[in-house]
Amino acid sequence: MDKKIGLKDAISIGIGGMVGGGIFAVLGLAVALAKGATPLAFLWAGIIAMLTAYSYAKLSKKYPENGGTVRFIHQQFGTGIFAGGINNLLWVSYIVMLALYASAFGSYATELISLSGSKEIDTRIFQTSILLIALFINYLSVKLVSEIESVAVIIKLFILIAFIGVGFYGLSLHPENLHQLSPENWESPILILSGGMVIFVAYEGFELIANSVSDLKDREKNTEKAYFGAVGFVIVLYILIAIVTVGALPFQQIANAEDYVLAKAAEPTLGQIGFTIITITALISTFSAINATVLGSGRVNYDIAEDDELPKYFCHMFWGKPVGFLITAMLSVALVNLFNLKSISTAGSAGFLLIFCIVNYIGYKKHKELDSKSYVHLLASILCLLAFITLIIQQFSENKVGVLTALGIIVFCFILEIVYKATKPKVV
């Protein structure tokens, strides 16, 4: 039986990985930082994602086996402390993403359903419950996770494109609202760049394509098309969503509804029914993203342990699946209940920018083997590093907890690897 996937399938995997919970979680944060220049912030983040996709495409074509980022790092750095620390950071960054998606789910769910009368308590109940439900589904059936994701991708793309169409119709009726997008309402360049970096997590999902390249038809011809097609589509989608959102609501209303701003942006044209439709879409999207990320992070965790960069305990089975699934979900529950959305987003973006900086560097070092342009890899690596530094410096003044969390996670991942390598029994 032919198990090969086509170009459209590979592009769908990338789009599904990116347009998950990220846009619903971080759009409000981007507007808070960049104001009228929010579309530029998304473009800036998208340019870095597109350049990094070039490195991923070339590396995926050369090393098409499953494992993606983990395998690329091993190809360059072996299985020492540095490689182990970076791979641990990849796993922990997935945990951060789970917390981000769960936070978005909780924020949108409380706008639809009241359980206790307290939004804070309801949010905690929803964001914790959805992680536990997703964990149960992953243990129940991986096939079910795939089916949920397939249906969710169609629903969320259809409704988001409809949202854009309705939004532009609303702007055509009230063209004066476009004033909010004019340069006089832009924040300073450093805040625009920082806004793009805080929301960079909304793009990171394209790396999931790496896990499917081994099954891609006409791999030589289609690998780059899959990456560039997915990232290019999502850049345009995000910029249009940002234009509609900034044009639909005054900045103060966006700030007041920061955690569920996409639903609020549907209200001016469609009223309460628009708010409800987008809220339900957000719940479906974040739920499917949580499901897929529990699966992906559990597998990454297992791969890292198999490569002897984490204790073999993580390869143990619990209820027929790696115990890493359970550990990942429990750590996400802790994270989402200890930190706010902005801190989680900063930590997630910082982790992936550093990982992508290193993957781009690997592309640069291996450009002859990859038959690729060294300057593209180098430019992408430098931009990721500069973006990481910009994010840390700018956020430190107003979001110390997020920055310290991000830096703490990075240091912890390397300390974990150093301790593990120092204490594991020596093979005689």
Automatic annotation (TrEMBL):
Protein's name according to its UniProt entry: Amino acid:proton symporter, ABT family
TM regions (residue ranges): 12-34, 40-57, 77-104, 124-141, 153-171, 191-214, 226-251, 271-297, 318-338, 344-363, 375-396, 402-420
Example of a GO MF term: transmembrane transporter activity
Annotated compartments: Cell membrane
Keyword annotations of the record: Cell membrane, Membrane, Transmembrane, Transmembrane helix
Keyword Lipid metabolism: no
Domain of life assignment: Bacteria
Originating organism: Maribacter aquivivus
Listed GO CC annotations: plasma membrane
Main localization (coarse): membrane
